[in-house]
């Protein structure tokens, strides 16, 4: 049965994940009437659904958007600061690498808990959530969405004045836009999959490893990482090729899984009592990059978050970039005094190149995480860059810091990062650099960067 109803001044958001919930709050705070249609059940009742990352790293861009919604302090209560990477080389003791020489941190948050907190906040401002509704057809011309109610299987058509696609990497709103003339789209899967595995708390409920860091076991072609959860557990994520000599397709039996972990991750295997069970029960998920343009249609439809720009997780920026979309979109709406047409055009002009930049940076960071973080030459380069940053805090800002601890547009960070890379590649060729790096002409290095940017 199909029914249609019109709600004046109605903002409809498809997808009540992290980005949809935050945007709903920000828009409701600006006085809009917002309804969110979300496929899944209410996260406040059901907690986290399997299949997506269980926890995520929240950094400055995300915090700024949460602060704009007035919920940064509440989220801090459920977040664990991670001050650096704890690298676990094979056959050697772990080494701590701080993210920043002034003690800055990124924060581990549990997806389900964060989503639930965001929904609760949205409720406070009168946002209506319709859980268990899946968007199945989007008509961009009329701004109508047909939704399937998953329990009753009935179809409902809703009318939006403004329609926002926050329905993730496989967005139905974007799919409708793909049928438009001159809509550019590309998607790319990497050859790696990921699987999540739990490191539970010990018998006393305590963390079994150092809590305030992001653990990485870099193994060249693959890696394991682990982020802390507030219940004392860690969620480990194994990134491994789908196919090939060392790959998911090879790990077909209990013996093979145990052998693989004992050989490659001997210090963590005994901390995972459910390793084999989880390995075979948890999904092996794929990693996609999505780029598209435009993100808006006729001043009435817009894409945000992964619906507009799904990226691989290796810079820990997907959610942060999505939260930044929300902040910038609402700032532009306020700036243009509620003129959606102008604000949406300004929004996509401000965001698309930056989304493409962070997509590239995220792909590049995979190589750094799985391969270079244990390489002495790479570590020396990081040390030299940290020294440059300490000497010239406003002039030489390492790429990771620009991306993670600043609000500089991602495309600008990438541009500066490329020039730094050229300079540092040359610096690292200096004879005997391991021993004489402190004698480098740091002023000249900084000046070269200043001239080139
Ligand atoms: C392994 C992994 C690790 C990650 N780590 C980090 C990290 O450390 N830091 C970081 O910033 N980002 C990280 N990310 C990225 C982050 O998960 C995403 O960028 C973020 O979840 C995007 O939020 P979103 O709300 O746009 O999309 P989603 O989280 O995908 O939410 C979309 C919502 O829409 C709903 N939906 C989908 N289709 C429909 C439909 N047809 N009808 C109705 N509802 C629908 C879904 O149920 C979902 O609730 C990671 C991603 C992965 C895969």
Outline:
By secondary structure, the chain is α/β, with parallel strands linked by helices. The protein contains 17 helices and 20 strands. Helix 1 packs parallel to helix 5 and helix 15 packs across helix 17 (442-452).
Mean of residue pLDDT values: 94
CATH superfamily of the largest domain: FAD/NAD(P)-binding domain
Q: Structural class, from helix and strand content?
A: alpha/beta
Strand proportion: 15-25%
Bound molecules: flavin-adenine dinucleotide
Distance between the termini: 60 Å
Number of domains: 3
Describe the structure.
The protein has helices at residues 18-29, 43-46, 60-68, 72-76, 111-124, 172-177, 254-264, 266-269, 275-281, 306-309, 318-335, 340-370, 376-391, 399-404, 410-427, 433-436, 442-452; strands at 2-6, 10-14, 33-38, 55-58, 79-82, 84-87, 95-98, 106-110, 128-131, 133-139, 144-149, 155-159, 162-165, 184-199, 214-218, 223-228, 234-241, 285-293, 296-297, 301-303. The protein is built from 17 helices and 20 strands. Helices cover 40% and strands 25% of the residues. The protein has three domains: 2-80 and 104-186 and 289-364, FAD/NAD(P)-binding domain (3-Layer(bba) Sandwich), CATH 3.50.50; 189-286; 375-452, no CATH class. By secondary structure, it is α/β, with parallel strands linked by helices. The chain is globular, with a radius of gyration of 23 Å. It has a seven-stranded mixed β-sheet with strand order 7-6-15-16-17-14-18. Strands 9-3-2-13-20-19 form a six-stranded mixed β-sheet. Helix 11 (318-335) packs antiparallel against helix 12 (340-370) and helix 15 (410-427) packs across helix 17 (442-452). Residues 1-8 have low confidence and may be disordered. The site of flavin-adenine dinucleotide (FAD) has 33 residues, from helix 1, strand 3, strand 4, strand 10 and helix 10. Residues 14-20, 37-40, 52-53, 56-57, 134-135, 166-168, 172, 194, 237, 305-307, 313, 316-320, 322 line the site of flavin-adenine dinucleotide (FAD).
